[in-house]
Amino acid sequence: MNEDDAGDAEQPAGATRATLEWADGRTLSVEPQPDEPVLDAAERADAGLPYGCRHGACGTCTARLLDGDPESLDHRRPPRALKPRHLDAGYVLLCVAEARSDCRLRVGSDVLAETRPAPWRDAGDG
Amino acid sequence: MSDTQQPGSGTHGDSHADHDHGAEGPGYETPQAAIEESEPEKTAYVMGLYTGTDVDAPDFVAVVDIDPDSGDYGEVVDRVEMPNRGDELHHFGWNACSSSCHVGGLERRHLLVPGQRSSRIHVIDTAERRRPELAEVIEPDEVFDHDLSAPHTVHCIPDGEILISMLGDADGDLPGGFLSVNDEFEVQGRWDPPGEIEMNYDFWYQPRQNVMISSEWAAPKTYYPGFDLEDVEAGNYGQRLQVWDWEDGTVEQTLDLGEEGQLPLEVRFLHSPVSTHGYVGAALSSNVFHFAEDGGRYRAEKAIDVEAREHDDWDMPMPGLVTDLLVSMDDRYLFFSNWLHGDVRMYDVSDPANPRFVDRVWAGGHFGPRHPTGEDDRAVVGGPQMLQLSLDGERLYWTTSLFSSWDEQFYPEEGDRGSVMLKADVDPRHGQMELDEEFLVDFGGMPHGPARAHEIRWPDGDCTSDVWQ
Fold this sequence. Notes:
The complex is a heterodimer.
Chain A: E1 18-21, E2 27-30, H1 38-44, E3 62-67, E4 73-75, H2 84-88, E5 91-93, E6 97-99, E7 103-106, H3 109-115
Parallel strand pairs in A: 1-7
Antiparallel strand pairs in A: 1-2, 3-5, 3-7, 4-6
Chain B: H1 31-37, E1 43-49, E2 60-65, E3 76-81, E4 93-94, E5 110-114, E6 121-125, E7 133-138, H2 140-144, E8 149-157, E9 161-168, E10 177-181, E11 187-190, E12 203-206, E13 211-214, H3 220-223, H4 229-233, E14 240-245, E15 250-256, E16 264-269, E17 278-282, E18 287-294, E19 297-305, E20 322-327, E21 333-338, E22 343-348, E23 356-362, E24 387-389, E25 395-399, H5 404-410, H6 413-417, E26 420-427, E27 432-435, E28 441-442, E29 452-457
């Protein structure tokens, strides 16, 4: 994994910067081209993000917008794996999400799990 | 290549070319012939997967040594890695089985291994049983072109053709359907008339009865991300069986199992080609339904009810979650797994409509022992799930992962520590089973990191793939 060493790098014209943040504190900045899903840009940077269907149905690549305009990401196909409550909370699907402006995203396999907490389990038990 | 061509001569002593099954084609003439002519299994193929974890590696087909006389007994001795990440290998099946046993020259040789999430279908050549190789890949776009996605069950059908249940359309929504693949591993198109069904999951066909029965999970967009109670309340999970005219490929009857039949998953007919009896496990309702023809129509009725149990960590009784079941090759016993509770049960089905409980073992789950094979062995952090039985009915094996996103909800440790494959020794004469404490295949120690493990198959046919004409 490349640590974030591109934070101050010159941004190519037309590209936006998406800063990926994992639960363990690692970060990586990637620069999706216009009309390029953030996942594809992350793959070019060997980010190793989880993914599955690559067409917005499965949710394996779910991330959460931490910082940035809610309009900073557009889904190029309907994000079918996300329900309205997930979209309202800032969850996005990186396989079909295109960046319109700079943003910060929580990534990693644990993000999908946040969207579907264990059913029936006593709240006190986590 | 086609498996009707002359097989290549293997150099490995365990190659298919050495196997004489007494019929011209693949498989065995009858279920009893399978019991008589088969050797005890020495190799298992097991789905291994990283999809949905942070391990940056593709899923794989594990080759597991299950020959007790081998120095590698209980070890993963080879792994066929997929060319891409993110497939979620799940179920898989053969290019040919006993349903084509009179088709001369046809071999049970190629495994079709779908990616449940990717909709990519891999073809693995097992000419060398211990060194299978990736032979061909059907890319997702070839599947989406037929407005289908999410491949699940692979059944070889007579004459070398292959049929795959597809759970969604090209968007991961409903309706699903069936994809037909020919013996050259070329996609032929949709098998069923568009719109014939909505939800799909598993299927089994019984050709002499001209019937196929399929079950229902949900739309891929519903089950892919994980289980959601909101979807239960919204009626987004299935509870019906479809009874098909096998030759016409049309639905003749729809059996609504009602609230007691929610999430009907694996479908198993008895192996005898004259039987119309079979079972389906309703996972969420945790009931096993028996179905059979009665006066020209199929009927399904609840035959086994697994009682939900109180658990300190749950604010409602925990269902067993009957996620897999199978019938022994001699049609005498039904086995099923309670993935959440942690037990595998064995029922006498000599009177098919009235299963009689005979025995069970506990291993992991939320009520079974965490170290079932001994306190010094690794912990089992999931429950009994995908089952496979030796053809002679004396060894039952299982793995512990259900589906990556659902594992994360019900057994969050499984992704971090990996699955296990366990085994019970079965005594069919006395209706008993006992956990083999000397057997544990640890998928936690794979080279790229802990992996989940799902469906299991033997090279020479097993209790969940062979069908007789």
